[in-house]
Amino acid sequence: MDEQINNRKTEHINIVLNDSDVDRHQSDYDSIRLIHRALPQLDLDQIDPSTTFLGKKISFPFLISSMTGGEDALVQRINRNLAIAAEECQVALAVGSQRVMFSNPKAVSSFQLRNLAPTIPICGNIGAVQLNYGFGAKECKEAVEMIGADGLFLHLNPLQEAVQPEGDTNFSNISEKIGTLQKELPFPILVKEVGTGMSPADVSLLYNEGIKYIDVSGRGGTSWSRIESFRGKKNRSLGIAFQDWGLTTAESLRLNSHFSEKINFIAGGGLRSGIELAKSVLLGAKIGSSALPFLKAATESAESVIEVINQFKREFVTTMFLLGAENVEALEKNRNSLML
Ligand SMILES: Cc1cc2nc3c(=O)[nH]c(=O)nc-3n(C[C@H](O)[C@H](O)[C@H](O)COP(=O)(O)O)c2cc1C
Fold first, then answer.
1. Residue range of the domain that includes 277
2. Ligand 1 atom with minimal separation from the 9 CA
3. pLDDT digit string (tens) for 81-105?
4. Helix 274-282 and helix 302-323: axis angle, to 10°?
5. What is the pLDDT of residue 4?
6. Which residues pair with residue 215 across a beta bridge?
7. Is residue 152 within 8 Å of residue 123, measured between CB atoms?
8. Which of 127, 164, 256, 333 is the most buried (most CB within 10 A)?
9. pLDDT digit string (tens) for 174-198?
């Protein structure tokens, strides 16, 4: 079993690195227009893009989203480079699914990044469906404690599991189980999708269970249906049929805007620039997240990851300047910058 999960992770990474169409380039951020200010009435150098996330200050509202972990040297290198860069740039970091570490002790160290990133918010990660396959509070607590994390992402991936040849597809009563966990555990549970978005019905279920952090992780970026389509002839056509299924991140935020005062939304899924990050904040997100744009850089070096983060940050600060927002709070309130 441990070998199967380990191999699957490496297989996923190789598919993502070798198929440029896994990134669907179909987020609808381009259709969202912003109202430019010719008179920002600000000094660009005085703009403060910092914010807080999980009680810690970060340099701008950004999280490197969950990707990987395991025994292989490649995934160990990826996580080290991500951690060094996230600490250097003071952004939040989430590790990939920690399920593997419960069956393979050699995988544990790949998730233990605290020594490399002592000050930033770090989040653990487990598939929520595993709550129907033997995982519970004990495993979730261990996942967080073993890596010194500030919270735990539970990911929702019903499409991926449906297409995956060996998928776990029993999603019955998952929201109730998430709620029970949140009541039992002393740290925040954050819930995320993996690239197909979240409807108001989903957000409402999670809100009623006490969840305060949701990464909507919408359609338009990484397509897990497409990735899984390469992993078995049987599911090839099913994976392609659903490769563009779901709500985009912007659609998810818009449809859930009535929750934006109650839930800390994270805008992930297809987020590819600091301009899109600013649009997400205007649509009600507290921070943005991104995964795939960091994968190749993380196989290279921490410096390559830092370059990608800095590109997002420069674009974000420039957008704030051109909208006349001196800090993130001002940007959040600046909803009339959106051309409706
Ligand atoms: C190589 C790779 C591995 C991933 N592994 C995980 C994972 O283990 N757990 C998880 O919750 N999401 C995982 N994701 C999903 C991302 O966290 C994110 O939700 C999704 O890729 C959409 O963002 P993007 O379009 O910026 O890539 C992975 C994504 C990539 C690219």
1. 2-339
2. 3
3. 999 999 999 999 999 999 999 999 9
4. 50
5. 72
6. 192, 266
7. yes
8. 256
9. 999 999 999 999 999 999 999 999 9
Query: The whole model's pTM is what?
Result: 0.97
Provide the CATH number for the domain around residue 254: 3.20.20.70
pLDDT band at residue 9, thresholds of 50, 70 and 90? confident
Beta strands in 4-129 (DSSP E): 33-34, 51-53, 56-58, 62-64, 92-94, 122-127
What is the average pLDDT value for the chain, to the nearest integer?
96
Q: For 65, which DSSP code?
A: P
Q: Quick one: which of 42, 38, 60 has its CA closest to 51?
A: 60
Which of 66, 193, 266, 308 for a ligand 1 pocket mutation test, highest count of atoms within 8 Å of Cβ? 66
Alpha-carbon distance of 260 to 263, in angstroms, equals 5
Q: What are the φ and ψ backbone dihedral angles of 166, each rounded to 5 degrees?
A: -110, 30
pLDDT digits (tens, 9 = 90+) for 155-170: 999 999 999 988 999 9
How many domains in the chain? 1
Pairing of strands 92-94, 122-127: parallel
In angstroms, how far apart are the furthest CA atoms of the chain? 60
The response to whether residue 67 sits with its C-beta less than 6 Å from ligand 1 reads yes
